[in-house]
Amino acid sequence: MSTAIPDAPSHFIKDIINEDMKSNKHKGRVHTRFPPEPNGYLHIGHAKSICLNFGIALEYGGKCNLRFDDTNPSKEEVEYVDSIMDTVRWLGFDWEDRLFYASDYFEQLYQYAEHLIKTGNAFVCHLSADEIREYRGTLTTPGRGSPYRNRSADENLDFLRRMRAGEFPDGHCVLRAKIDMASGNINMRDPVIYRILHMPHHRTGDAWCLYPMYDYAHPISDAIEGITHSLCTLEFEDHRPFYDWVLDRLPVPCHPRQIEFARLNVNYTIMSKRKLLQLVQDHLVSGWDDPRMPTLAGMRRRGLTPEAIRDFCDRIGVAKVNSTVDVALLEHCQREDLNKRAPRVMAVLHPLRVVLENYPEGQVEWFDAINNPEDPDAGTRRIPLTRELYIEQDDFREEPPPKFYRLAPGREMRLKHAYIIKCTNVVKNDRGEIVEVRCTYDPGSRGESGRSVKVTAHWVSAAHAFDAEVRLYNHLFTKENPAEEDDFRASINPDSLQVLTGCKVESCLASAAPGSRYQFMRQGYFCADLMDAAPGKPVFNRIVSLRDEWAKIAKKMTIA
Ligand code: ATP
Ligand code: MG
């Protein structure tokens, strides 16, 4: 696998690793992990974390584990586990034989909890959730110690064992770390590390009714796996003292270093699994893999490539300050990728019939068309011309406005790869709408070398064209930062999906394999839908249009 970027730029995390390599801190080892919670599908924010963790392992000749942080049975499902594995593989990364689940460590985590009790570092607390909150204090006032804080180790052990044995109902009591109720860091004020939940777990079934909290399970899972650098997002910065506290008090095999980096945010979308789940549940999208979703499953279905997503993650860099990235950059990366490898074909999305009056009926002429001028190996194909064809409605105006250089009565336009045509007349229906444009063609203008006109248009022969459905997408939200709105669902873009039927495409697209990608000349990059396209029933999603907004932004900011 060659997903490592040879001259990938450095960043503060690599600087730290370089230092550790120099000082031989981990005996030259680099071991990272990607730790998703299986409570939703992965989104483009996760791609940043995946590329970072797996990318660093590749770059330093180290390893990266895939670990499911499945400590909360109430929100987790096997469907999510499967989709996460599928997506990480699709992005181009390989955890080899290192697939782990935090739930694999439940017994060890429990034994460590007993150890914390025995060493006077944890206690069973019978305060209610509300009382715990109240005792905790605020950012400006210290908390108060729980009345159960100074129980004997034996009493605590007895309670913990009875919790495990299922003697108590949910919420009856919790296990808390005994740290410092006056700490300036609220996370250190005797945080809860175990709660009672009589709920089956997707892997351990009914074995447990006691589940560890994420903040407790995470550092220990890292240590058990021999992780050297535990990379997480900035919101965990305040949790790092607890991460270290746990590892300092347990006989764990090693003490990984937690390093925080900025979350990726992208404009015109949302990045929280909880909110994405709401969109799915409220049927505001067709599912987690709706092509408008910021999920990787959605992007994959839309037709984005793993190469473009990795390139994007590389370009946004890794920093310590949260920021929002323009979605135009992702689209730019996608165009650059497909420009090199997507065959260029002709598809008319809003067809207008053209009749070439001086073209013999029944005649078919074949023209050689280059599949991709950017790719010499892509070869050529043959495209047919007949007396009747389709052009794009937008390529014709009966009364052309200023600066309209396409076809109009008395004016000429070139058909890509073929002849120059000239409009002689229009045919209208009863309602006065144009249904057909009559033209003549210039037999001496064959090929692109002859005389030149301002516009070259795409077209398809009516006799050979295939009907296709084409889906055009827009931002899912009208607001740049929908998460800021009172109800993010209110800013859903009503025009985010446009379905066009009766589009006319070249016959080579009739049986386009699901997932195959093309440039439709002048229209953008398209992908045959993974679910709905079938032989003889072409359905295409527009991945991106050809208009490069990022180039404009970059020019303004004078960055490349
Ligand atoms: P969400 O807030 O969307 O529900 P999460 O952080 O709860 O996401 P996890 O499954 O816990 O989701 O995330 C797995 C890993 O991916 C974590 O290490 C997390 O820090 C990282 N991650 C999640 N969202 C982003 C993001 N927007 N940018 C970068 N990394 C992210
Ligand atoms: Mg999380």
What does this structure look like?
The protein is an alpha/beta fold and 560 residues long. Among the domains are: 25-261, HUPs (Rossmann fold); 347-458, Ribosomal Protein L25, Chain P (Beta Barrel), CATH 2.40.240. The chain is 26% helix and 23% strand. The chain contains 13 helices and 27 strands. It has helices at 12-22, 44-59, 78-91, 106-118, 129-136, 153-164, 214-224, 240-248, 273-281, 296-302, 306-316, 327-341, 549-556; strands spanning 31-34, 63-68, 99-101, 122-125, 174-177, 192-196, 210-212, 229-233, 257-261, 264-266, 323-325, 344-345, 347-348, 351-356, 365-370, 380-385, 388-392, 412-415, 420-428, 434-442, 456-457, 460-461, 466-473, 497-505, 517-520, 524-528, 539-544. The chain has a 7-stranded mixed sheet with strand order 12-25-26-27-23-24-13, with helices on one face. Strands 21-18-19-20-14-17-22 form a 7-stranded mixed sheet, with no helix packed on it. Strand 25 (517-520) and strand 26 form a beta hairpin. Helix 2 crosses helix 11 (306-316) and helix 11 (306-316) crosses helix 12 (327-341). It is elongated, with a radius of gyration of 30 Å. The model is unreliable at 1-6 (pLDDT under 50). The protein binds adenosine-5'-triphosphate (ATP) and magnesium ion. Residues 35-37, 45-46, 48-49, 232-233, 263-264, 271-274 line the site of adenosine-5'-triphosphate (ATP).
